[in-house]
Give the backbone structure.
Amino acid sequence: MKELREPRSRLRRPQVLRDPAEEHRTATWLELFFDLCFVVAVAALARGLHDDPTLGGVLRFAGLFVPVWWAWMGFTWYATAFDNDDVPYRVSLLGAMLCILWLAASIDGLAEGRVLSFVLAYVALKTLLVGLFLRARRDASNVRAFATWYAAGNALGAAIWLSSLLVPEPGRYAVWAVALFVELLAPILAVRASGERGFHPEHIRERYGLFTLIVLGEAVLAVAAGTAGSGWDPTAVLTGVFGFVAAACIWWLYFDYVESSALTLGSRAAFFWGYGHLFIYASIAAFGVGIQLAIEGSAEPELLAAAAGAPPEGSDAAGASAILGGGAAAVYLLAISFIRSGCSRLPRGSRLVAGAACVHRDALPAPARPDGVRDALRAPVRARSVKELRTAASLSSSGLGRSVFPVPLFPCPVATQDVEDDEEGDQGDEAVADVARDRE
């Protein structure tokens, strides 16, 4: 894309689209400062879950995590497209940071029904973002439709948030859900209207990685806080060590297996990648709370019951244990699988089942083994696999990323390398077509 930015005074520069192919694009100091404010917001959400580790507390945590995450998303994706580092932009981001602190300070009162401050803080954030997109709409004429949809979506969402103040509970929370749906839909419509990639893949990858470290820092802090309050009880210390090892595994899994290749595979894959991180972030934050509860509970068995306001033999301890052992870890792993499927264009579940039935026919009961059933299943699987192999070759030759199959679809040595001519393509087709036959 042609570079649109012009050297101007820092006082005011055109808010135009940055080059998505710009070399050495990294997070700015202002963006790092911006992220620090979200540390406070995530900590406030975690504190609320720690104080109420019941099913209701988990649902409240999950519901409130969405607007906090989405506030970060809005400004992050705006910055990757339009950050020009002039004074108006800096002032807007500093104002947003103040609103984030306001939002974080309002989270504790939500459990008692005090929603006015939270709603007004969130609406203020959206108003600043609308102003930024309107400025971009004026200056960046080549992506005017893109900026218009973003501005309209955020403005409508803010209006719905304000209208929720007129609705009593629990209907108010349904209005919040509608507002968030409108805001989440706006980027999809904006990209469809524009048809142009307005983000820098490497910059977005770094920004998401930095936010992952923010929420992971809450888990590390929970280990220290829980251990410090345990009186160095041996069991609590051992639980803290386990918690740190688990946090290290979370870090390892994310930075080794959550690839950013989806950002270059098209808008649909990019949305899978970007939106799927909601579950990664929320599960890591909840996992940190579970670690702290486990450390505190191992040192003082009555503590979990006191936190939930129920006897220890009630469901409170079980609910807190589910955060640590089942819920958060399971959601994290499923979120990684979801994002990797978007990056890799893995086959759908129905086709995996059909493929397993074809390849491992002998594992099926005798009535399910007729050759006609096998062949009927094998044909569409074979055809789709040939198509995916050709897609893999095309992506590899165009330099858009590594193989689209992190693991082979079938347990056989079918290569996904460049197809340089028709002869090699035919050999790949024959290899896939013979997979099921070779397994018999």
